[in-house]
């Protein structure tokens, strides 16, 4: 039964999963539905609900056309607003910049005889991400609801796309809600829309809906497949760099694999200095015939901790990082696709970074693919941000679904080494239980990567800062957000400040920094000047360089980004100015301060 509650979708339903989209694309099984869609703004939800509060039988999801003059149809997609997909709606039309509500997207899908799926094929719509909730309709029929703004999801449409023109309608709603993740307030723009790609994917009737492989800390490989369809008498073969490493009968729809360390010891390891990727294929056969096959390029590396060190391929590594929002290199819009990823991570490389914190939510897959290629370690993150309803079971359920979307999509990515469960949440029993369930989910889906969370540091006059947030007990790496020299404490006080933790684990300073308006110059004690920001970075670097438990940092933030919280005219104008580059990519003085230090570390 579909969720027929008022317009606010509260639970995902009717959702399928289909990972390894790149592999499907390489196999020619993906048809892009990106491009110009039609759209109708619907702040009063009239497209879904009639004045009696029931499902509107004439609703926008029906994509009605007046069939004769007497027909009273009070909408028409064909002559409505145009929106580009992928893309947020806020930056495509000036009147939409602050819009929070429902927008109905419609795309006509033309299917020719040659494009109709065969009897032994299945078809899915794959959405890279839609913020925040979406209801998917095809030819007027509701198929699925998805809640969560940053993870991929699929909707099965097998048997529904015969020859002809089909109406794909998606209701997207980006209203903030207290029970959601994120909740009511975030220091980033609430970009609404189908902000990542939409594809029509055609797969065999029995398909590998998930196939992953990664290296565990002991140098063995772990992974698995999930098969949807007839799983009788199936055989699984996995090759890495052309060598068969797995050859076994499938034990069921979900099948785990391990490959002993010595079978892959000779293969070149992935690292920032040598980001080698090996071709991997997963092949399902039945009586010798190929049933389904998927490929991916996978890096092999180990990641672990040893006391207060992070260890990559057996050697301690210092994470010379930078944080990023998923905002494009210019235009203050949602980032999407390979070009944005290449530019943004190119700037990280120019900083001499080997690490990026993709905050505060799952970024476009192009970002982790580019990090794999470029040799940047990645901190992946869930938007468990300020003001979460930790005691709401629906919120917990959605957090676990978003955690699964994050891990399942990226757990073959060597660059991804950290899963972060939260950012700046306040200690308490409900928070502990909520985040604990996310950490457990992370480890169920991927026992190899490190877990973390960015902890809030509250101002203190004590120069000896001791981290004792109880969450530190449950994560592998302690993320510490601190803004000495900006929100509290003077630059001078940093010279006396020491950082220790209760936990004997690696610390990453997951946020630090200061604001500056690009091109605004003056004395280093004048706030909002580039000189002020650079002076804060110099003082932070001096303090961090002598912090024994620190295994790395990801200063906040690579690029100025849009936020409704920052409204100082002439300086912020709707942007958070802690970027090392402006919203148009212009580099501030602090960029070279950080880049110079990272270069000096080798
Ligand atoms: C917080 C928060 C960020 C925010 C930053 C700031 O630490 O995690 O999302 O943008 O501080 O105040 O600029």
3D architecture notes:
The chain is 17% helix and 32% strand. It is built from nine helices and 34 strands. The strands form nine sheets. An eight-stranded parallel beta barrel has the order 23-24-25-26-27-29-31-32, surrounded by four helices. Strands 3-2-4-9-6-7 form a six-stranded antiparallel β-sheet, with no helix packed on it. Helix 5 (393-410) packs parallel to helix 6 and helix 8 packs parallel to helix 9. The radius of gyration is 25 Å and the shape is globular. The mean pLDDT is 96. Bound molecules: alpha-D-glucopyranuronic acid.
Topology, element by element:
Blueprint: H1 21-26, E1 30-32, E2 35-42, E3 81-85, E4 102-111, E5 121-127, E6 133-138, E7 141-147, E8 153-156, E9 164-173, E10 198-204, E11 207-215, E12 221-228, E13 235-240, E14 243-249, E15 254-259, H2 261-264, E16 270-271, E17 274-275, E18 278-286, E19 289-298, E20 303-306, E21 309-312, E22 315-316, E23 319-324, H3 337-350, E24 355-358, H4 365-374, E25 377-381, H5 393-410, E26 416-423, H6 429-445, E27 450-456, E28 464-467, E29 477-481, H7 491-494, E30 498-501, E31 507-511, H8 530-545, E32 550-553, E33 561-562, E34 575-576, H9 589-601
Parallel strand pairs: 23-24, 23-32, 24-25, 25-26, 26-27, 27-29, 28-30, 29-31, 31-32
Antiparallel strand pairs: 1-10, 2-3, 2-4, 4-9, 5-8, 5-10, 6-7, 6-9, 11-12, 12-15, 13-14, 13-18, 16-17, 18-19, 20-21, 21-22, 33-34
Bound molecules: alpha-D-glucopyranuronic acid (GCU).
Alpha-D-glucopyranuronic acid (GCU) binds next to loops.
């Amino acid at each position: 039964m579909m969720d027929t509650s008022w317009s606010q979708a509260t639970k995902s339903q009717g959702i399928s999963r289909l990972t390894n989209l790149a592999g499907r694309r390489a196999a020619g099984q993906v048809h892009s539905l990106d491009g110009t869609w039609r759209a109708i703004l619907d702040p009063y939800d009239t497209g879904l609900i009639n004045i009696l509060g029931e499902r509107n039988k004439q609703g926008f999801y029906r994509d009605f056309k007046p069939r004769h003059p007497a027909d009273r149809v009070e909408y028409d997609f064909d002559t409505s607003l145009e929106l580009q997909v992928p893309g947020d709606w806020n930056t495509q039309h000036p009147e939409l910049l602050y819009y929070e509500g429902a927008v109905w997207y419609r795309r006509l899908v033309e299917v020719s005889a040659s494009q109709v799926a065969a009897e032994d094929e299945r078809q899915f719509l794959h959405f890279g991400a839609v913020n925040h909730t979406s209801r998917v309709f095809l030819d007027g029929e509701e198929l699925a609801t998805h809640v969560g703004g940053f993870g991929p999801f699929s909707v099965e449409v097998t048997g529904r796309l015969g020859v002809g023109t089909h109406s794909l309608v998606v209701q997207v709603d980006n209203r903030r809600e207290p029970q959601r993740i994120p909740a009511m307030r975030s220091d980033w723009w609430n970009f609404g829309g189908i902000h990542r790609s939409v594809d029509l994917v055609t797969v065999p009737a029995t398909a590998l809906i998930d196939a992953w492989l990664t290296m565990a800390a002991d140098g063995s490989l772990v992974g698995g497949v999930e098969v949807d369809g007839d799983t009788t008498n199936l055989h699984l073969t996995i090759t890495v760099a052309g060598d068969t490493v797995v050859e076994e009968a499938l034990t069921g729809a979900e099948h785990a694999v391990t490959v002993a360390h010595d079978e892959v010891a000779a293969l070149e390891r992935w690292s920032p200095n040598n980001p080698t990727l090996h071709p991997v294929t997963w092949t399902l056969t039945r009586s010798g015939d190929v049933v389904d096959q998927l490929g991916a390029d996978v890096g092999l590396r180990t990641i672990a901790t040893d006391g207060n060190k992070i260890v990559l391929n057996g050697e301690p590594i210092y994470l010379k990082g930078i944080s990023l929002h998923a905002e494009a290199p210019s235009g203050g819009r949602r980032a999407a696709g390979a070009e944005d990823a290449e530019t943004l991570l190119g700037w990280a490389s120019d900083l001499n970074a080997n690490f990026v914190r993709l905050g505060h939510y799952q970024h476009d897959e192009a970002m982790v693919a580019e990090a794999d290629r470029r040799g940047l370690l990645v901190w992946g993150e869930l938007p468990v941000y300020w003001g979460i309803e930790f005691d709401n079971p629906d919120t917990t359920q959605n957090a676990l679904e978003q955690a699964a979307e994050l891990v399942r999509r990226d757990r073959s990515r060597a660059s991804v080494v950290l899963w972060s469960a939260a950012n700046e949440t306040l200690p308490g029993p409900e928070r502990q239980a909520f985040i604990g369930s996310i950490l457990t989910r992370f480890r169920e889906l991927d026992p190899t990567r490190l877990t973390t969370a960015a902890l809030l540091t509250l101002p203190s006059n004590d120069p000896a800062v001791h981290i004792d947030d109880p969450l530190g007990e449950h994560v592998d790496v302690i993320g510490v957000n601190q803004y000495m020299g900006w929100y509290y404490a003077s630059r001078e006080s940093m010279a006396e400040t020491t950082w220790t933790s209760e936990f004997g684990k690696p610390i990453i300073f997951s946020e630090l920094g200061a604001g500056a308006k690009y091109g605004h110059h003056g004395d280093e004690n004048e706030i909002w000047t580039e000189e002020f920001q650079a002076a804060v970075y110099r003082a932070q670097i001096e303090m961090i360089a002598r912090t024994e438990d620190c295994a790395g940092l990801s200063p906040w933030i690579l690029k100025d980004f849009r936020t409704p919280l920052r409204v100082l005219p002439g300086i912020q104008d709707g942007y958070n100015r802690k970027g090392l580059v402006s919203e148009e990519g212009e580099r501030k003085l602090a960029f070279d301060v950080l880049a110079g230090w990272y270069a000096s570390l080798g």
